Model the fold of this input.
Amino acid sequence: MVQTNTALLDPHSESLLSQYRSLLPVFIQTSEVATSLLKSNFASSGLIVAALEHRVKTEDSLRGKLALKGNKYNSIYDITDVVGLRVITFYIDDVDKVASLLERYFEIDWENSVDKRKLHEIDSFGYLSLHCICRIPEHLYSDPEKPEINKIRFEVQMRTVLQHAWANMNHDTGYKSGVEIPKVYLRNLSRLAGILELVDDEFSRIRSELADYRRKVQNLVASGNLDEVQLDGDSFHSYLTLKPFDSLMHRIASLNQAEIQEVDLSCFIPLFIGMGFKTIGQLDAMVRDFSEAAYQIACFQLGLTDIDILSSSLAPQNLCTAYILKKGGGRAGLKYMLDIINGPMDGNEDMARFLEEQTKDLPFMNQ
Done:
């Protein structure tokens, strides 16, 4: 059974509640418009958040608020949290990025905004969100039938996923509610708050260091210092910007005047690592040293066909085939390659046998 707030209100608070009722459709539209604008701005700026929530305060909730401090407000427009949005970010530093976007697009009431992150209490972790009081400017959105939209102020709370989880847990346990609970639980909750705050900080630090690493890798690859670059997913994708397989691929495609269909080459990363390559320099040397052998394999594969569309993966696959055969990897090595590229399949064993038999007399195998 739903409980209704029956708090008695003075005439002024009842007047505020009446204003709320008459403006409820506008509050709802303001909530939806503000949410839509934020989503659009997040998308255009490339900012990814964990969640974006919005709500309009219920009449029962507002009645309770007015019962406590209704005399604080002259009109319904003075209550800044009737409309509320919450942005939940993955990282601490993204909270400031969200705030920057709010400042760029909305009108901010800084006097009534609160940065709770400046608190330093040991048990305050879940309450360290940033609260901005905003208004939608007319140049961003207006509705002639509801001009009040540009007058309504609304609250945007920004916090991290961990802060949000902590706040919800505290709400469920009654912590911070004024209800006394045993000190042993308070102590354990405070310890957990410290751990979660450390995790939040570490996530942001690791992301920052990864961004620095990626920039370093990109600079090393661009400058040609490939021997200094460890082979991994980031460095491989930076290496692909040099288009290392393009020359071979175009040469292969010219055999049949075929069209090249570009595909994702990420599946080759575990293969290259499994083949023993540790740096981008070693991989680049393989491309350079085995391109002719890879071309010979393509000539054998395509010479008597009329295939007119080729996957861009054919060049690195033929390079690996040539390398494995020349290094004595044989049928087992070819099957390993096919299992990684295609996934384990019944036909990989037969294909490996076919490749081994049909390439044994190619010139590169006898050099």
Q: What stands out?
A: DSSP finds twelve helices and eight strands in the chain. The mean pLDDT is 88. Residues 37 and 140 are 9 Å apart (CA to CA). The first strand starts at residue 51 and ends at 56.
